[in-house]
Every structure is written in structure tokens, then in C-alpha cells.
Specification:
CATH class: Alpha Beta
Helix content: 25-40%
Strand content: 15-25%
Number of strands: 13
Oligomer: single chain
Strand order of the largest sheet: 3-2-1-4-5-6-10
CATH topology: Rossmann fold
Order of helices and strands: EHEEHEHEHEEHEEHEEHEHHEHH
Structural class: alpha/beta
CATH superfamily: NAD(P)-binding Rossmann-like Domain
Number of helices: 11
């Protein structure tokens, strides 16, 4: 099928584009006006200019598509950006869904995260049926992610062939050459202590396979948690540091220390919250599989070997 991918220049979206091409789909990558893909996509990928703030551009981009993976989003790194974050993640999703309906897109995947599922105060994996409680953390990002997911599911309840995937914490490389922020912080010695809590560390390539399979055979209105290895932040940071050959961070650091070290990546890591994933449903219905943590860490460090660049 012809598939539009939003967020195609991001960490996940670029891997989704490649996975869909590998599976024989005709891929159309949405890029913001004036911003070309970096590096240029393969000849198998068509570029379409568009923006989540411009519904007419979304309709043009979706014309002729049978499928779509909505992986675009915005992460605020300061309170001043919360308005932009909500406008992009919530209102932008609504525009995208209206455009997909108008274009008669047959199958859609909305990409969300554990922000839309919940957290635990103990290292206990959560599943699709867990009670959402991240609103208790008082973080605008979590609220926006949950609301955008609810709008997507409302489309499914209204009859759109749409499912949601909730991802663990992604590791990997970006096509624009930027080093993964966590890897960059460790390499530069900016991350000296890890906060309490943890997450499910997931290779972006494994996440992309899950997204592609959800598009092909995910059930309407269902949510699928795509996890990797459930691990504490300290264990993950330590594994990355050892692979990089740099000083290992101490345990018990606060959220502020991590924010200062990696503001782009970790501004929303609450201290003492566990975002572990029980992905049994995705493994049973989608055949989701994730590589061991050691391999994920090796790949993240190797793929992020290039100097950090800003676009």
C-alpha cells in the first residue's frame, strides 16, 4: 500500500520509512516546507511537504494513500513551549485525522508513548489495561500525549481503521546525524548521577518493525505497548557509559541534575517513576520482538559515533 509517514526525519520516523520500504510498501514521507530530508531518501521514497498546522497541506500529502503512520510530535523543553507542544500534538493530530478521513485512508497507526499509559512507583511492568495516572505528575507533555491518543482512539471508535502503539524509551541514531542526547551527555561527562526509576529501553529499529506490523494487521481501536528491556535509569546509564568507555554515573541523582545534563532528551523523566512495559499483547498479536539490552546499547553508541549536529 502507499503509506504516508509523519515525523519522517525523526529518530523513529526514519526507521519506519526504511522498514516500510523493506516490506514493499510505497512510502511518502511528510517533511515540513523548506526542510529537505537529511540525508536524501532512497528513490523508493516520495517526499510531500506539509505541516500539522496546515490542514490543506495534510490533505494533499494524504491524497492517494491507503495507509498512514502518524509519528510526528513536539517535545517542549521549557514552559514557554507548552502551547506549541499542545498545538502540535493534540490539535495537529486532530487535523491529521480529519485529513486522513477526507482522503479515505484505509489503515492508520498513531504513535504514542508510556506517557499515555501510566507509571508505577515500584519496578512493576504495566500493560494496556493499566490505569492512566501520569496526570498526577503535573507535566504538560504527559497530558498532551494522552489527549492526542484519546483523539486518535475516538476516530477508531467512530469507524476509522486505526490502532495506537505506545513505545518504550527509544535508543538509536537520527538520519540528520545528531547524536542521541543521552549518549552525548554521557560522552561529554554532563550526566554524573542517575535518577531513581526506570523505563523499557527499545531499539528504534525494533520499534519501527512494530509500527509497520501494527499498520498491516493491528486491530481497530486497540493499543499495543512496544517494549524492549525493562531497566532502571542507573543500569541503562551505566551500560551506556561502559560501552562508551567513560565514567559511570552515580545512583540517586535528582531530576534537576538529569535535566541540566540532557535537557532535550530527559526533561520529562520524573524521579522515582517506573515506566516498565508488559508487551505480551504486542508479542502475541503483532509478533513484536526486541533485541537484548547489550545489543541495543552497542548499537546506540556505535550509531551515535558521529559528532552532534544541530539542524
Amino acid at each position: 500500500m502507499r503509506v504516508l509517514v509523519t515525523g519522517s526525519t525523526g529518530l523513529l520516523g526514519a526507521h519506519v520509512v526504511r522498514e516500510l520500504v523493506r516490506r514493499g510498501h510505497a512510502v511518502r514521507a511528510l517533511v515540513r516546507p523548506g526542510r529537505s530530508a537529511t540525508p536524501p531518501p532512497s528513490p523508493a521514497v516520495e517526499l510531500a511537504e506539509g505541516d500539522l498546522s496546515d490542514e490543506a497541506s495534510l490533505r494533499r500529502a494524504l491524497r492517494g494513500c491507503e495507509g498512514a503512520v502518524h509519528a510526528a510530535g513536539f517535545l517542549a523543553t521549557s514552559p514557554a513551549e507548552h502551547g506549541t507542544e499542545r498545538a502540535t500534538n493534540v490539535e495537529g493530530t486532530t487535523r491529521f485525522l480529519r485529513s486522513a478521513q477526507a482522503a479515505d485512508v484505509q489503515r492508520l497507526v498513531h504513535v504514542s508513548s508510556m506517557a499515555g499509559v501510566g507509571f508505577a512507583r515500584e519496578p512493576v511492568p504495566l500493560a494496556e489495561t493499566s490505569r492512566w495516572n501520569t496526570g498526577e505528575l503535573g507535566l504538560a507533555h504527559f497530558d498532551a500525549k494522552k489527549e492526542s491518543e484519546e483523539r486518535a482512539l475516538a476516530g477508531a471508535w467512530a469507524g476509522m481503521e486505526l490502532c495506537v502503539v505506545n513505545l518504550g524509551t527509544l535508543l538509536g541514531s537520527r538520519d540528520d546525524g545528531r547524536t542521541h542526547a543521552l549518549v552525548a551527555a554521557l560522552r561529554a561527562g554532563r550526566l554524573r548521577a542517575s535518577p531513581a526509576g526506570g523505563a523499557s529501553a527499545l531499539d528504534a529499529e525494533d520499534a519501527a518493525r512494530g509500527c509497520a506490523t501494527a499498520l498491516e494487521r493491528g486491530r481497530r481501536g486497540e493499543r499495543y505497548l512496544l517494549g524492549g528491556t525493562n531497566v532502571s535509569w542507573h543500569a541503562l546509564d551505566t551500560a551506556l557509559a561502559r560501552e562508551l568507555g567513560v565514567a559511570e554515573p552515580a545512583a540517586g541523582g535528582g531530576l534537576l541534575a538529569r535535566f541540566r545534563a540532557t535537557p532535550e532528551h530527559d526533561v520529562l523523566r520524573p524521579n522515582g517513576a517506573w515506566f516498565w512495559i508488559d508487551d505480551a499483547k504486542a508479542r502475541a498479536e503483532l509478533g513484536h520482538a526486541s533485541r537484548p539490552l547489550a545489543e541495543t546499547v552497542r548499537r546506540a553508541c556505535a550509531l551515535s559515533a558521529a559528532p552532534e549536529r544541530r539542524s
